Amino acid sequence: MDYVIRVHVSPLDIPAQDWDALLAQQDAPSPFMQHAYLAALHTSGSATADTGWTPQFITLWQGDTLAAASALYIKAHSYGEYVFDWAWANAYADHGLSYFPKATCAVPFTPVPGSRLLAIDAAARQALLQAMLDVAKQHQLSSLHLLFTSPDDRAACDALGLMQRQTVQFHWHNHTPQGQGFDNFDAFLASLSQEKRKKIKQERRRVADAGVTFRTSVGEAITSEDWGFFYQCYERTYLEHGNAPYLSRAFFEHMQCDMPNNWVLFVAEREGCPMASSLVAVQGLGTRNAVAYGRYWGALERVDCLHFEACYYQPVNWCIANGVQRFEGGAQGEHKMARALMPTPTYSAHWLAHPAFADAVERFLERESAGVNHYLDHLAERSPFKRDEPQ
Fold it and tell me: pTM of this prediction?
């Protein structure tokens, strides 16, 4: 095909207008693939060569038209990916081989499904993936990984023979399994089994009895003071687990300036003082296909069940009130199902340069996929919703 292929060492080298226009044409666009989000990760120092994310963004051009684009990184580790391949790296090491560096096509630190191979059509998408494979081979990398892919991405990966991997997340939908929407939070509770409904009411009561109330701010109404307090909470969460936060304060300053309308902030207060917060991203607010994404949270004080209130019940209540159709709760967490976030398959694709290891991983993925499907069947039997009445 008549493409000019370019490799960029920074997302800033790619015109933002062209990137975002291409993203809007995809089957699963998300705010995390917007140029401003990726640029903020880079300019804030959160995802750079110094943190083990060396940008190798690839674009395909037809004249002045951006035909395809991808956010590709050369990785020195597997942190911040949420599709775990540490066992693969250990197997390489056991045989005296190096698994790193590798190539990863993903949004750093963001386990949200969406389009990864941005393209004007299927042919351009496949050509883009081939260019990514060529880069991996030219750099003699061990492997290429595409994380949290869309259906169109998976079709391109199938066409070029990449191995597919399936994992599970938990997403809430603004309707019952039978398709009935919710007018308010009480209607949502009424759709659940008595056990789950009682548990949620008890958890919310504990937070309220502790004197905690919530304040919600949307878009530009989130003040600089709010963003500063949120970062205190976010940073505390990581430090309590003995880690430095993935994202810097400067990254969230970019979000405030460059993407303010993609965020909703829930601040927990007690006696007028803020003491916890959760930050949710949103796409398409005011449209029929609006989606919210649970992202970050933290607390400066401990209150029983506060995490559930801040990260699930407040966002779900807000989603119902604002017509948001789906709330994605982030990576992992079977406990979310008790709060009506239902199991949803997510996908990644993988290419390994070493033939013997590729064969071993392919056999492993076949067994793992069977296990995941069995797990999904098992979860389906544990639905938190009311059982249908016998006919």
Answer: 0.96
